[in-house]
Design goal:
Radius of gyration: 33 Å
Low-confidence stretches: none
Shape: elongated
Number of strands: 10
Mean pLDDT: 85
Largest sheet: 5 strands, parallel
Strand content: 5-15%
Strand order of the largest sheet: 2-1-3-4-5
């Protein structure tokens, strides 16, 4: 339904035009004005698609109104009608950028023809505008997808990002990286977005990265960036746990202003994701991490507790996992206090020996001193694993080489990418604990298992679409996605176009 403003100082004329609009069932919502001045005031406060105006009127005539309208609202279609049929009026009407000129009394066929043409032009422009808006949104979504997944931007894309930053309002910007224990963005994205819109009462860009990971980009002025944001994220994490039965792990960046600052924050968030061994239910604010060493000392203590719990439960794969993670975290954080490191290793090995009934305290002190004598993380880790495996009565190479494990998992993914490849399933295939498999795979490849599966599936989807052997709905299922709408959205985020657009574009 388009909006038309009828302007004439004679009520009978306005009523006659309204009658014709209804007679021909034109899709127009009608508003009337008595003269050019009132019409001008109305246009300042209301959206209009068609201006249908007489020429001779008091206060402001139709030609003056038409010129003014074109200058201020060039998208409005202007039709002028008048009892003065001289050539001079028609010429002036064209100068005022009218799309056509009608004479009074109006001929019915001419009126119907002109109005249908105007409506047809408006419809085409609306469709074009919608298409361009969809293209802009898709381009922006694809751009953010590249940014948030750590991809390299072309010069053109950098220009797009700069232009976007100039247009958005709000001086305070940040990103929120969200990961779930399950693939909730594939299975329950609608519920998640409903919860998000309920609590996050500000504008944001939502970009789904993978079935278990999404990013929010916020730009606001004040309130939402402070305590309100913490409450929002707390409620979101709580309700996802209650309704979707999975945990969320959230990392909130520091505030930034420029695209360059945003790229740095993405890198900082990814570092936290790489170094922080979480199990969900965490909300980490980078602004609250004052010093690098301070953060890593907290993380060392956390992993130490996890390792002590694994020792008490005799979860042998996790004991080795946390030993690996502990030494790596110490290396990242440059934890140099010998007293502190001695304390950490002593507590762990004491608990380990007691649980496995090793009572040689002299041996305990010797091992701790030996660990402190090493200069590299690799030496420390090798010795610590040797000691642990020695007590567990396993050979030092009992835990398979990380490269071999990662290679096995990659081969399974390549062979069975169309099936439901959960972390538990993959861990069972290599006879290791899921947490251990997840950690080792990421350490070896730099990718999470979900990201690797998604990347591989998206490339296979492109190949299937190129070959044109399957219908699009079959391509999604062949690549492991039963949820067709989600497959379409993920493909569009990944490749910048929908599967249909990709196939059409590539003929």
């Amino acid at each position: 339904m388009f909006r038309i403003l009828l302007v004439d100082d004679e009520a009978e004329e306005r009523e006659g035009i309204s009658f014709l609009i209804q007679k021909y069932k034109l899709p127009l919502r009608i508003t009337e004005a008595q003269n050019g001045q009132k019409a001008s005031e109305y246009l300042k406060a209301h959206a209009v698609d068609i201006l249908f105006t007489d020429v001779k009127m008091p206060y402001k005539d139709g030609l003056e109104l038409a010129k003014e309208t074109f200058e201020q609202y060039p998208k409005i279609k202007i039709v002028i009608f008048s009892a003065y049929g001289e050539f001079e009026y028609a010429r002036k009407a064209m100068e005022a950028h009218a799309v056509d000129y009608l004479l009074k009394p109006i001929e019915l066929d001419a009126f119907e023809k002109i109005m249908n043409k105007v409506i047809e032009d408006l419809t085409k422009e609306l469709e074009q505008s919608r298409h361009e808006e969809e293209q802009r949104k898709a381009s922006k979504k694809s751009l953010f997808y590249t940014v948030f997944t750590g991809g390299n931007l072309t010069g053109f894309e950098k220009g797009q990002l700069e232009e976007y930053f100039q247009k958005i309002k709000g001086g305070r910007k940040l990103i929120i990286n969200i990961e779930s224990g399950e693939n909730i963005f594939e299975q329950n994205e609608t519920i998640f977005l409903k919860l998000l819109s309920t609590y996050l009462l500000t504008d944001y860009e939502y970009v789904n990265l993978y079935p278990n990971a999404s990013v929010l980009f916020l730009s606001a002025d004040t309130k939402i960036m402070d305590e309100d944001l913490k409450q929002c994220l707390f409620k979101l994490e709580r309700d996802v746990r209650l309704l979707l039965h999975t945990d969320l792990s959230v990392v909130v960046s520091r505030e930034f202003k420029t695209p360059e600052d945003m790229m740095q924050q993405v890198e900082d968030v990814n570092i936290i994701r790489r170094d922080f061994y979480g199990r969900g239910e965490e909300i980490i604010y980078l602004s609250e991490i004052v010093l690098n060493s301070e953060y890593y000392e907290v993380e060392v203590e956390r992993i130490k507790k996890l390792m002590l719990d694994a020792i008490q439960n005799k979860e042998e794969a996790l004991i080795i996992l946390y030993a690996d993670r502990l030494v790596e975290t110490m290396g990242h954080g440059h934890v140099v206090s010998r007293i502190y490191v001695h304390h950490v290793f002593y507590d762990i090995l004491l608990s380990f020996y007691e649980q496995y009934r090793v009572h040689d305290k002299t041996r305990l002190f010797e091992i701790v001193d030996l660990l402190l004598s090493y200069k590299s993380s690799d030496q420390i880790l090798d010795k610590l694993k040797h000691v642990l495996n020695e007590v567990l009565k396993k050979p030092s190479n009992a835990i398979e080489d990380t490269h071999t494990i990662a290679e096995k998992i990659q081969n399974i993914i390549h062979d069975e990418y169309g099936t439901d490849l959960s972390l538990d399933e993959l861990a069972g295939r290599v006879n290791l604990a899921p947490a251990y498999v997840s950690y080792l795979f990421k350490k070896e490849t730099g990718n999470t298992i979900v990201k690797y599966i998604t990347d591989y599936r998206m490339e296979k989807a492109r190949q299937w679409l190129d070959d044109r052997e399957l219908k699009i709905v079959q391509v999604g299922k062949t690549c492991g996605y039963e949820n067709q709408p989600y497959f379409n959205r993920l493909f569009k985020n990944y490749h910048g176009v929908t599967p249909r657009q990709y196939r059409d574009k590539n003929g």
